[in-house]
Amino acid sequence: MRIGVPTEIKTEEHRVALTPAGVRELVEHGHEVLVQQGAGVGSAIADLDYVEQGARIVDDAAAVFAGADMIVKVKEPQPSEVALLEPRHTLFTYLHLAPAPELTQGLMDSGATCIAYETVTDDRGGLPLLAPMSEVAGKIATQAGAFALQKAAGGRGILLGGVPGVRSGLVVVIGGGVVGVNAALIAKGMGAEVLVLDRNIDRLRELDLLLGEGCSSVHSSTLAIEELLPQADLVVGAVLVHGAKAPHVITRRQLGLMKPGAVLVDVSIDQGGCFETSRPTTHTEPTYEVDGVTHYCVANMPGAVPVTSTRALTNATMPHVVRLADLGAVEALRADRHLLAGLNVAGGKVTYAPVALDQGREAVDPLAALDALATAAA
């Protein structure tokens, strides 16, 4: 199989979907790898590094898409990339389709087989390809929030860790998953007071053990959030519903409960955002203000640290990339129910029920979609 790696073109995105180690593994399995010129530069990977492991460097994205059977990316395809997709392509990347009906329609129209990193599962019910970026995003969320609290950045002028004789800042983390745990650990390390909210009682017990002294767990409810907002200096939104739009846990009205200059960091922005007033921002212009509250809603937070993020992501994705290349998309998906859970669009149909539900579309059974692809190929 020919695997193509285009340069990421989303604003301020510097990650790349394959490292030289990944190229080496694919080449040793008998596959050909096409890498767009300069694709790895933002992650400190030179073209020569790829060439030395057997990749072929091509000039532009058009050459990558024209020459490859499978396209491996990091972020969702931008309009110019969607236009290059064909029914023969397998696309493997983060998609986050629930809040993106136009992208969904574009992928359906392309006829390509589209597999989303963020809905691939594992035996424990986890999301193994989302987890490494959730770890990074959780840590960045607290760092970014701490910076946004500085007066020069428009914040209250709070040092999260405080100093002797001055109280530390209060960080409220809504959501006790991978993002929330990492956000809380960084906040704790900074010396802040930390509260983590979640609805699952068993998870709250786990959080108490995981986070230890210095962090407290709180059962999440509308009232609990409203009682904490007036005290919070930084609120991290870390709410995840697998593959679906994130629910709004803080409304526009509730912003009025917060201190002027307090900060909201919405890590759920890829899934539509968990604050009613959230809208996607970029690393170039990461914040904006609503009713005196600073919002940080960068849609690709891990892109700020691409040297770390690229390696963390590819460590997780490579076994699946190799399997897809070795077996072909249809057989690899049929053989692995966890990879099959990542199938979002195939043969012009939506195959992931939460996306279909959020967009008012009809969901097609993924195995039925694969059967249709196999029949068409025959």
TrEMBL record:
GO terms for cellular component: plasma membrane. The keyword Oxidoreductase applies. Transmembrane segments: none annotated. InterPro entries: Ala_DH (IPR008141), Ala_DH/PNT_CS2 (IPR008143), AlaDH/PNT_N (IPR007886), AlaDH/PNT_NAD(H)-bd (IPR007698), NAD(P)-bd_dom_sf (IPR036291). SMART domains: AlaDh_PNT_C, AlaDh_PNT_N. Residues 149-297 form the Alanine dehydrogenase/pyridine nucleotide transhydrogenase NAD(H)-binding domain. Its EC number is 1.4.1.1. One of its GO terms (molecular function) is alanine dehydrogenase activity. The keyword NAD applies. One of its GO terms (biological process) is L-alanine catabolic process. Keywords: NAD, Oxidoreductase. PANTHER family: ALANINE DEHYDROGENASE (PTHR42795). Belongs to the AlaDH/PNT family. This is alanine dehydrogenase. It comes from freshwater metagenome.
